[in-house]
Structures are given as structure tokens and as C-alpha cells.
């Protein structure tokens, strides 16, 4: 009997290079070839003293009443580096051993508590920023505080440190704008330096009562996506963006790499402690000073991540759900561009439907926005309005919602989705992780063969085959070859190229659809068609809840799509999908 060589077993992928087209320039290729890598992000977020009550009241009006509750937050540079190694710019998702996952608008709304629905963040660069600063801040930064068109955060902190007693209303507004600018530059939209904030956001703060009608959450997510796309390239060692969001997202979904936290008491929850959800992780210490050692540990943990070690819907847990004051809204399920001035990225909930409690089908090819990633404020000159195409798509967000059938198991779609995914993904980052992952798969295959109802001779041959494969890998993994993603060997997959024209993008296949006429939970052979919602003006921002201990979830959205929290979802069975996890392990994997 001939056994496959470890060269075939330890191929990290992708076997089919049609999806991950940038593999040769991705940091995972660099690491697989034996080279080390470590990002050097800003290592902490320090809120400083809480602002006085007049400013807090204004922040609540502006939609920033929750995010100000986030206190000091140490950034684990090792964890951030390991996560970025699995970030794929082609799909705007993390590629883990058991499927794609990503940070969505739902995560932004719940982890940061900022508005995710509303107008896109757009604008133009002013001719004279000094005039804008004098009008909206009542002061002009000195020359030594400027850095390009950004102003040092230290100037905002020093100039607006103490609100005068009995300050008039316009002065309170100026101090509130300055505080929001500090939040933008240090927490929400920091650049790689983390020391300056661009003044392009200041005009958006002119009318504080309208500030919350902007989708600050989509801007934060666009900026973080863009920073991870740049950081995932070979030779990149810097990263900006909201790393508090990235780290809190990972800790909530992968408990095996998260520190332990004490759950708040019922009285603390009633007083609003614990929301935004990232507040629960404040003051948690980072792992160790030996960052190089810990990035290897995190890398290994993600390589051998088990199916039950990733929590797809963490916000359904009663321990977490009680913190959430209200539903973040249906925009979290929209397949739309994320816009932050010159930055445009793509929100792909259709690729991570399990994060919304839905069965995952093979997604459509991702939107190709490589051209947009080559643009920045310097390229666009004095104007940083995104193209009208992207703004129009954002305005259509209520017509671009995913929907599908609820999944009551981790893999109700394994026979189709996972077979496709394992051919197009990068399964492992390190050789050690590939060895461990292969061993786990081998043991599961042995158990599957041993407990199957096939005749004993075939069962024994399969078990012997798997055992020999595992021994080959164990003895030879140190000499495992590197792979060129251009040498794809799966000619059966017909995965289409990424789509360039957003207006020609087809609707997702399978159970993900934009149409919403019928209840998707009523199974039928044909998909529903026709509009369900009329698109009107943007809804009001996420309002500050005077009683944070009470949850006021919207019920209407549950009529056409399941939510991570809300009323019970009717159960049903289909004949063409197997809900059993036993079918997951295939011989190819």
C-alpha cells in the first residue's frame, strides 16, 4: 500500500489560488519560510480622568456616551501580531482552521457602543484649518503642535484639561469637541503613530446634536480593516486602527487565549457597568514582556484551534447579554462598503454567517477594492470624498441584508462549504501548528473510521493509512517544503475572480439573499423575491439608555433574519444538508 508523503499532508494551502491571490506577498509566506515577524503597535490606551458632568451630558447627546466608559487598556502586541497573520486582504476576514470570521458592525456597536447606522463619514479638507479650529474649539494650535494636517493629542489634553466653573454653553461645546477629537485620535481612529489626530473629523463635530447621526462605527471598522490589510504584507511592522476593538473581539470569541475576568454583579449591571463590552477587559494585563515567545504561542494556538474553541455567537450568552442595553440594528447584516473619508473597505457578513447564527453557504467572490487601497489623503489632494458609487451602496444598506436559515450546529453545511474552504484557504501559519493540526485531524479520522458501519477490512486499511500519514508528518515536519500559491493543483474548483464593479455584483448564493418578501424560516424550493423595506432617512443614533440594566431589543428585524439575541427561532430540518459534526473530517483535510 502506498502512503502519501508528508509534502502533500503539510501543504498549508491554498491548493486553489483563485481566492487568496496575494499569498506570495502575505506575511504567512514569510513565516512559513522560517523567518520571524512581530508588529510594533502602540501598546496601551489610556483614557485619563473622566470628563466632568457637563461634558458627559454633551457626549451622550453626540452618541459618545458609552465609549467614554472604556478605561485603560493594555494592547497585547503578540496577540495582535498573531491575528494579523491570519487576516486576508482579499476577503477582509480572518482565515481560521474551521472557516472565515471577521469583526463586523455588530462587534463595533457592542464592543465600543458607538453609532453604526447613519450617514457615511465623508468631507473635504479645509483651506485654512486655523479658521476651523478657532470657530469650533475657540483656540488655534501652536506651530509645534501641528504634524501635517494633524494636531498633537497632547495639545488637546493640555489646552482642554480643566473645564472652567460655570462655563457657558458654547465653551462646554468646545471642550466636548476637543474630547471627542482625543477619543478619535487615541482610541477609535488612531494612525500608526498614535500621537496626532487629523482635523478632517473636526467639521463633523460642528453640530453636536447631529454627530450621532453619522456611522462612526463603519468608519472605525474601515480604518481597522485598512490597517490590518497593510500590516499583513511582508516587511510591514506597524499597525494603527482601533486595536482595543480587535483585542476585545478576539478575547470574547476565543476564550482559550483570553484572560479571566470577574462577571459584574446584578447591581453593577443595573448601574451600567460592563457596557460597552470591551469595558469588561479594561485593566487586564498583557501576557508577558517576552513578546517574541508569546507570538509563537498564539500562532500555535490558532493553528491547532479546535472547532469548539471559537465562539461564533458570544453575545447570546446570558452572562454577556445582560450587559447589552439595546439591539445595534439591522445594518450589522448589510453587505456594504465601509467608508471613512478616503478609506473604503468592504463589509462581508455573507462570508461569516455563523457569527449571526446562520448556516454558512459557499460565498460569492469578494469585492476587489485593490485600486482603492492605493489611494490616501495625499493622492486625493484636498478632497477626500469617496466615489458616489460607494456612497450610493451605503445608502442602499437596508436592501443589502443577508438572510438565511438558522444553524443549530457548528457545521450544518460541512459537505459543501468546508470542502470548498479547505481548498482555497491558508490552513496553517507555522510548521509546528501544521504538525499539531494534522495530528488532531488524524485522530478524529481514526475515530470516524473506527465508529463507522463500513466493513472491517476497509476500516482497518483507512486507520492504517491515517496512522502512517501521522507518523510521516511527525518525523519529517522540520523539513517540510515551502509552497508557492501560484502552483494550485485543484482544477475542479471553478471559483470566479473577484468582482470589480459593485453594481454588477450578483446576490449571494445558497440561503444568503438580499430579497426579503417572505419569511426565510419557512422552507421552500424557491427563494423569496421583491423588496421588504422602503429605504428612508437614517434612523437616530444609538441613544443613551437611562436604565442600562434594562434591555430594549427591537423585534421587527427578527421577521426576516435571525439575530444573535431576540425571540426564539423556529427549528426545522432539510434533506440536502447534514447537521452532524461527524461528517466534518474529510480525507482531504
Automatic annotation (TrEMBL):
InterPro entries named among the record's database cross-references: AminoTfrase-like_pln_mobile, MAIN-like
Biased composition (Acidic residues): 573-589
GO biological process: meristem maintenance
Annotated region described as Disordered, given as residue ranges: 547-589
Pfam families xrefs: PMD
Origin: domain of life: Eukaryota
Protein name: Uncharacterized protein
Lineage: Eukaryota, Viridiplantae, Streptophyta, Embryophyta, Tracheophyta
